[in-house]
Amino acid sequence: MSDIGSPYADTRDMYTIHNLFRREFALLPGLVQSVSHNDEERAKVVTGHINLLSSILHHHHLAEDLILWPLLLARAPKEIDPVVHLAEGHHQRIDTLLSEANVCLAAWANGAGKHDGEALAEALRRLAVVLFEHMGLEEMLVLPLVERHIFTSEWLVMQEHAVSAIDPQDGPLVFGMAMYEGGVEIVPEPLRADVVPVAPHAYADYAERVHGTRTPPRAKDVVIGTPFVGVSVTAG
What we know:
The protein has eight helices and no strands. It has helices at residues 12-33, 40-75, 81-109, 114-149, 152-164, 171-179, 192-195, 199-211.
């Protein structure tokens, strides 16, 4: 949404999405390592969670690649082109790390072996570090440019592109993930009446199954390298 009288994008929703990614991706290595050797049922739960997050991240970045970067390169001062290209390079590196993690995930999901789990956890740590770096860059250097050069209508098109890729069955859960550290503004206006009443409960139920708690650590508590990265869970 934009402020009254301003035609330019309000980027606050991006901080909400970034908090979702910070929280959930930072917790992944610990989730993998908490799965007991050969506990294939628990591994299926964690595998499904990783696949969901990977899909959300991929489509989020794809929307930026298709819509945001070309607009900034065409419209903003040429002096900021290196910033845009750096962000694009981050996306390519993140895609590579996602692919590497998916290879490890396929091996681990087939038996939940200890060695495969260690390899997957390490791949996810590398991914989280680059992802944190990328989101920090966007917040410090890219979003201020967006607020001066990208119109609200264009920002909404980018949002809709990412949202349209979400399976409708996963919609309440994904929005609940975002609303856990944000507000109802993250939900597009046409969806609010249906989604807002159920989304927080959908995520709480899901978090209990995945993280072992209905209130997992928040983004501010999962800085890379802290003991909060990874919630120890017991399959039940």
